[in-house]
């Protein structure tokens, strides 16, 4: 970009758009945005990420962009229109696990929120877990689902329904997408669902997943993972 002045940026972008394929131009745009975001983070005391992590993030955000401008935008809109913004209890005799992830690039770990409730809405277990690693939002959501299921199984809780507000995870499980970077984690989730007797993994909106979201954020205010049984923290 040597020799490009402020007034030439638009011409440069138009020229680049003509030279690159639509896919490559969109990927270049996302990578450029992430580099600028990381530059600002470092300027304000943040930690630089590895190139692999940045590229992984770029792939995630590009998929999200393409999903939203594609046919799934209609599906997502209908989901939000039909959502009554209230958590729904599972059917009689079932347990429902809601899980969410929170990501802060400078922290070196992700927060995982997990809560299990029965058909009456009673809380049987809740957890705010810390998981070390610099993960992209999508991979963090995948890890959150996997670790949330494993944690509850290890404590003798076996949900029949798992809900998350990351639609890509549900699609990856339905399509058995095991070849991408997050593939091994998605495969782990699939095996855990089989272990639970073919439990279902469903998409839910953020409003209905608020408790798990709060627990995921709670992890950044604590030095260790915490769990509660038969209750939930204020």
TrEMBL record:
Spell out the protein name for this chain: Ribonuclease H-like domain containing protein
Q: Single GO molecular-function term?
A: RNA-DNA hybrid ribonuclease activity
Q: Which residues form the RNase H type-1 domain?
A: 98-219
Output the PANTHER family linked to this UniProt entry: BNAC02G40300D PROTEIN, PUTATIVE-RELATED
Q: Which domain of life is it from?
A: Eukaryota
Source organism of the structure: Trema orientale
Q: Which SUPFAM superfamilies match?
A: Ribonuclease H-like
Matching Gene3D superfamilies, A to Z? Ribonuclease H-like superfamily/Ribonuclease H
A Pfam family recorded for this sequence: RVT_3
């Amino acid at each position: 970009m040597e020799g490009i002045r402020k007034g030439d940026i638009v011409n440069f972008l138009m020229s680049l758009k003509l030279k690159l394929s639509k896919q490559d131009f969109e990927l270049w745009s996302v990578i450029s945005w992430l580099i600028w975001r990381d530059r600002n983070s470092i300027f304000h005391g943040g930690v630089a990420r590895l190139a692999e992590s940045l590229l992984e993030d770029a792939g995630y955000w590009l998929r999200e962009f393409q999903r939203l401008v594609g046919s799934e935008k209609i599906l997502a809109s209908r989901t939000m229109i039909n959502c009554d913004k209230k958590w729904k209890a599972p059917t009689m005799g079932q347990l429902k696990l809601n899980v969410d992830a929170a990501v802060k690039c400078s922290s070196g770990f992700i927060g995982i929120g997990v809560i299990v409730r029965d058909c009456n809405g009673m809380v049987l277990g809740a957890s705010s877990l810390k998981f070390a690693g610099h993960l992209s939002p999508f991979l963090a959501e995948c890890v959150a689902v996997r670790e949330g299921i494993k944690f509850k199984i290890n404590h003798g809780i076996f949900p029949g329904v798992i809900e998350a507000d990351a639609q890509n995870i549900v699609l990856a499980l339905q399509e058995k997408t095991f070849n991408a970077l997050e593939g091994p984690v998605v495969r782990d989730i699939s095996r855990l669902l089989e272990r639970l007797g073919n439990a279902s993994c469903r998409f839910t909106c953020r409003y209905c997943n608020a408790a798990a979201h709060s627990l995921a954020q709670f992890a950044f205010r604590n030095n260790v993972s915490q769990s509660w049984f038969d209750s939930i923290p204020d």
